[in-house]
């Protein structure tokens, strides 16, 4: 019997009539020319912000930067994000933008966080998080790298990338952020409904009773739990998830609640995960309010 996944595999004619979209430059019209109703791009066109400004216009490493200022613990709320439950759909927690002008390691150093390469004794627990993550891994060699540890408000966090070896090159596949939990939670996965649920067989679905939330998010667990139901009943936490792009997966393992996204870590993604994990832990403890 073939599965849904089989119907997407080994299709010899896949993409045979495909042409690159016109807005990407070549292949949108005949002979690689733009459609008649759209003027051709200037010869020197490039995406905004692609090139650095001339040296004489730069004053230090953030010269030419036109996005929001780098965040800091004193900027208000959790890393300057303001009060819990009030982000807007325009918050830059998904797409890379000028706010990612610094690396995750540089950002962490400014927050007073520590760094390790993922191979130390204190990092052993992270391999269990990698092994239990509710996603497919490209390689059995998948392992934590570039581990950052610090505090976000009142919670401890660890943020790291999941990498694997491809020949001589180390490839990053996922970004994971995790926080320890004081309560012993059952195995749980909180996942966007649109995601393919890898490893979710046999888990019980706990609905929240909020029709909009339940249409977009699923909480799956190995057993019913009043602690998890308390999280689902927290309107602030549900609202926070509803204001995201439904791009993160959450699960419990090794005494942690963790979030994962197919990306490498960057400052805005760490802040995004920190905000969501902090809200989860506040709801778990039955403590409403902001995280600042």
Structure explained in plain terms:
This protein has 292 residues and is of the alpha+beta class. It has a domain at 101-284. It is built from six helices and nine strands. The protein has helices at 104-110, 124-132, 211-216, 226-232, 235-242, 267-284; strands at 114-116, 143-152, 155-166, 169-180, 188-192, 204-206, 217-221, 249-253, 256-261. It has a nine-stranded antiparallel sheet with strand order 1-2-3-4-9-8-5-7-6, sandwiched between helices. The longest helix is centred in the last third of the chain and has 18 residues, at 267-284. The model is unreliable at 2-32 and 45-94 (pLDDT under 50).
Individual helix count: 6
Described by the principal axes of the CA atoms, the overall outline is globular
- Describe the strand arrangement of the main beta sheet, using strand numbers: 1-2-3-4-9-8-5-7-6
Oligomer kind: single chain
pLDDT averaged over residues:
75
What structural class do the secondary elements suggest? alpha+beta
End-to-end distance: 53 Å
What is the β-strand count?
9
